[in-house]
Amino acid sequence: MHLSSNQAYQSSEFQPAASQDVESALKIGEGYESIPLSSRSIFDATQESSTSSNSFVKLLSWILDSHAYVFIVSVLTIWVLFSDDIRISACTKEADNYFFGISTAILCLFSFDLVASFIARKDYRCSFYFWLDLLSTLSIIPDIGWIWYPLIGINSDSEDGQTKVKYSKTASQGNQASRIVRIVRLIRLIRIVKLYKNARIAMIEEDDEGQVHTEIDMIPQESRVGKKLSDLTMKRVIVLVFILISFIPLFNLDFYVTPERSWTFGLETIEHFLGQDGFINVRDEYINYHEDDRRPLIYLTYTYGNDIYIWKTSTNPDDLRDTEKYIVNEVHSQAIIDLRSDTHLDSELNICKTIFVCILLTFGALTFTRDAEDLVVFPIESMIRKIRKIARNPLNACILSSESRSASSIENQKKKFLCFSRKAEKAEYETTVLENTIVKIGALLALGFGEAGSKIIATNMEKSGDVDPVLQGNKIAAIYGFCDIRNFTDTTEELQESVMVFVNEIAYIVHTVTHQLMGAANKNIGDAFLIVWKFGEDDVLELDDPLVLNHNSRKAGFLGDLALLSFLKVIAKINKDPKMLKYRNHGRLIKRMPNYAVKMGFGLHVGWSIEGAIGSEFKIDASYLSPHVNMSGRLEETTKLYGVPLLLSGAFYDILSPTVQGYCRHLDTVMIKGHASPLRLYTSDVDPSNIFPGEGLDKNKEQTTRLRKALKSKLDRGQLESWELFEDSREVAALKEPFTEEFYDKHRKGLEAYLKGDWLDAKGFFEAALLVKPGDGPTVTLLSFMKESNFEAPLEWEGCRDLIDK
């Protein structure tokens, strides 16, 4: 007996010791090298057999799942639904063999499909659909006359017409029942209903950064609940229709008793009068009565003595199919009736009946689960899609929340079915409440964790098990903007409970403006806010000190400009927004701080940081840790020393576009805590005296998000340059108006002399600059510093002063 390699390996009679060697080596995980040489051939044969088997199964799966194969099988399934009726109603007997040949080929293909599916798909074996496919394959046999006619005896000329009619009825009912399972094959293959429903709700999703995400094959995956419900309903509909089609005809009298026909009665009369007077009249009456009937007489013969009489028409009975003629036999006579009109009409009705059953099954699949799907399945699938969207990018939860608010609720929508529509009943279903709750929780998580916590949320939502909020950090490159509310202690003491409103009104301006210009709010620390502009992996060449950006990346070229523009616009907004201006007239604030106005300080720096969770399982904050984040805070603190609202680090200045660098001024070069090398300090000068009261920001987050996406799209495509935003901004122009070229020229010359150590020359230029722009903070600060040394640079002066202790 021949054994395959796999069988040989599994056989206990074939080298058991070697088998044990292989098994023990594999169990302890020592690998192939640990298997004894005597057993390696067995192991190799086993692996080769397993690989061959897997390859064969994969090949079968590839064939079964290929679009071409599915299309061919679907087309052939449609063909076998109607082929036999088309053969009878539209073709002559000569064409039968061609139809039988096609049906034989289809029978072979469907047999292959059945066997291949049985091998390649474990869940298909002996399942409900396996037995249906088996029946549908066997149901093709009645369409193959070479096989079917001998089985039911319809070829036998010895059978009379009544017997053949019974055979035909039995075959017809069998064919009707078999067509049901063929229809099921078609519906199961192309999944008409589900494809339609899913295509209707297919979505192309775009996240907050404009990245397009699509569901698999553009069609959302069916939930397990929906799939189970659909399968159960489909099975019951199939069984119900199958039972109706198969068994209802059994309750008809016509199925058991064939009524007497005039053909039979007339031939019995001829047989009775044979050889008697009046026979000729009876015969002629019989012929005349049936000759022009819808079922015409085409052949009549009788024998009287040695004489044989034959009457026939131009229609040859041999040219008709056995089912198309009715043969009446008596002792001495025989008549043949042409039944083609009946068979053609029956085939046409069968085609209509098949189409009706297709519609019935489709209608059943579409309607029987409709209420359950509307109330349970669709809401569950909608929840799953939203959860997946939140898991992919938790910041999408805020967008989903706004969409849920703006979209019409399910009870206010018109439900449509076919050409009918109705307004849904107003009801707050639990599934709707649950879905809205999930979105709200996701939105709260996104607001609480921010962009820095998006990975924490996404990771925990994608995996099962306990929540693990403390994950390993992720090193990223970003621009860090730190801003602080000035005189906050005094303001808090005077506003008391209202201070929360005060802070939140400022926070809304800061967050809205920076969000629109590609920033992301992170920390809210009482009077301070941290804003982050993150670079992508493709935007950075070296994620270290110093940070090296990819100059071929458009984002790396415009993100710095947007960060600076954000803070300039924030300064303008807090000096024009009515909600901010009202505090200038607040009695208690003015009494404590005369000429009070809302003011803020800003610091901007760029570098790497570790993005992640800080805390424990009791409480965490998603934030950024690095010296560069701290540096942005120190820059903000240093603004008080120089009397300016905004300070930029030299590293940040270097990533600005050349045009935007022209909007900045070099103030000083210093040694500052947290920075090992000299740090160049820059500012972008602002004077809010030319900013006039205006309208406040519209509290419409959706509009802000749309503007952000539109801006990013234009910048990415090169339709807009970031420096154009500065030149086109009236707010920036108003902030810059008091600063003239004469002032900048004198200050630049003074700074150059100061850095070189020529402090007397620097004094002259700085004083000339103050004549142009009196009270300029950086100029006054440097003059005060040089005055401490009587305007003589120290011997160790290297163009950098020490601010570490200040």
UniProtKB/TrEMBL annotation:
Membrane topology: Multi-pass membrane protein
Domain Guanylate cyclase: from-to ranges: 479-636
A family per Pfam: Guanylate_cyc
Key words, A-Z: Membrane, Transmembrane, Transmembrane helix
Matches recorded under InterPro entries: A/G_cyclase, Ion_trans_dom, Nucleotide_cyclase, Volt_channel_dom_sf
Predominant place of localization: membrane
Protein name as catalogued: Guanylate cyclase domain-containing protein
